[in-house]
């Protein structure tokens, strides 16, 4: 210690420069350090979500979750433990990794295992949705999207395609699908008695829709110095055109969709409802990614909202219900 004092007395300028550098680095670190109420807990977790409409929880567990877990654990490294949950139509497998695991490599291994096991799962199942998060992933903002005179279908559509699409550009933010509202869906209301009288089944209607709503490449046409791509577009542009799709010819008479079903612009069965001040609404939950600051992400989201509302219905409102940044400050 005495030697250090002697060096400082002999070379005062060196220690003055070091003190100034420490001061500058300290000030810069204070501005750049993320501000949060909880520490960043780096325990990587990946959720694999399977969906199969009409399947019971028991079948989801035995026919999807269990085969996938057996296949996945043979190729994915550094697994700490697994958690699986089966509910109607959905199977969720949570994979907890050891701290310090390379999450990019883990994602690649999980995706490869899902594609490999896909052929051994029930026919018609789609590839799973793979989500990454950590133990410190918590909502920092909850936004209510509502508007007088707007239907639940309009609220859901505006929330997903306009509001959410604009807010996810804020650095450090992650916004899953909205809650509440109705998801637009073209629905075919089949008449069982009409099908029986024509000798048809619901599968015939389904096959007709799949086969006659396609865009097919048909080569190209070369005219002079120009070459044009040719395609056959057989996709109806309206629900009325869907009613006129032919199903089958029976005894010389063509049976159309409209003869056995009614096509309408409707919505999928609603599975969750959001109320704000007694009125139907849509809820958007905002998470922060990685080491981003809760305060900066929340401020960026709230500052972005006014510009998103330009060009949207004048009655549309986006308001913050909860804001974690208030407690952090």
Automatic annotation (TrEMBL):
Which keywords does this Swiss-Prot/TrEMBL entry list? Membrane, Transmembrane, Transmembrane helix
Q: Which domain of life is it from?
A: Bacteria
SUPFAM superfamilies in UniProt? Multidrug efflux transporter AcrB pore domain, PN1, PN2, PC1 and PC2 subdomains, Multidrug efflux transporter AcrB TolC docking domain, DN and DC subdomains
One of the entry's Gene Ontology molecular-function terms is:
xenobiotic transmembrane transporter activity
Cellular compartments per GO CC: plasma membrane
> Transmembrane helix as a keyword?
yes
Matching entries from InterPro entries are given as:
AcrB_DN_DC_subdom, Acrflvin-R
**TM region(s), chain numbering:** 12-31
Protein name, as recorded: Cation efflux transporter
């Amino acid at each position: 210690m005495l030697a250090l004092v002697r060096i400082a007395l002999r070379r005062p300028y060196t220690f003055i420069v070091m003190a100034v550098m420490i001061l500058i680095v300290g000030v810069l670190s204070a501005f750049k350090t993320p501000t949060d109420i909880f520490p960043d807990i780096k325990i990587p977790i990946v959720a694999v979500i399977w969906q199969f409409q009409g399947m019971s929880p028991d079948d989801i567990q035995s026919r999807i979750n269990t085969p996938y877990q057996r296949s996945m654990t043979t190729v994915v490294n550094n697994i700490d433990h697994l958690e699986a949950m089966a509910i109607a139509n959905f199977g969720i497998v949570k994979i907890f990794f050891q701290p310090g695991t390379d999450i990019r490599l883990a994602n690649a291994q999980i995706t490869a295992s899902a594609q490999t096991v896909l052929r051994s799962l029930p026919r018609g199942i789609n590839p799973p949705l793979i989500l990454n998060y950590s133990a410190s992933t918590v909502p920092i903002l909850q936004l209510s999207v509502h508007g007088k005179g707007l239907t639940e279908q309009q609220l859901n559509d505006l929330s997903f395609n306009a509001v959410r699409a604009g807010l996810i550009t804020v650095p450090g933010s992650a916004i899953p699908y909205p809650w509440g509202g109705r998801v637009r869906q073209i629905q075919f209301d089949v008449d069982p008695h009409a099908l029986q009288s024509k000798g048809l089944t619901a599968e015939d209607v389904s096959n007709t829709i799949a086969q006659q709503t396609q865009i097919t490449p048909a080569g190209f046409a070369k005219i002079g110095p120009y070459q044009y791509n040719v395609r056959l577009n057989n996709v109806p542009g309206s629900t009325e055109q869907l009613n006129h799709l032919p199903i089958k010819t029976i005894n010389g008479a063509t049976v159309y969709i409209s003869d056995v079903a009614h096509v309408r612009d409707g919505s999928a069965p609603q599975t969750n409802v959001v109320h704000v001040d007694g009125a139907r609404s849509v809820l958007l939950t905002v998470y922060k990614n990685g080491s981003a600051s809760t305060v900066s992400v929340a401020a960026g989201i709230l500052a972005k909202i006014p510009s998103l509302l330009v060009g949207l219905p004048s009655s549309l409102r986006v308001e913050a219900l909860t804001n974690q940044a208030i407690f952090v400050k």
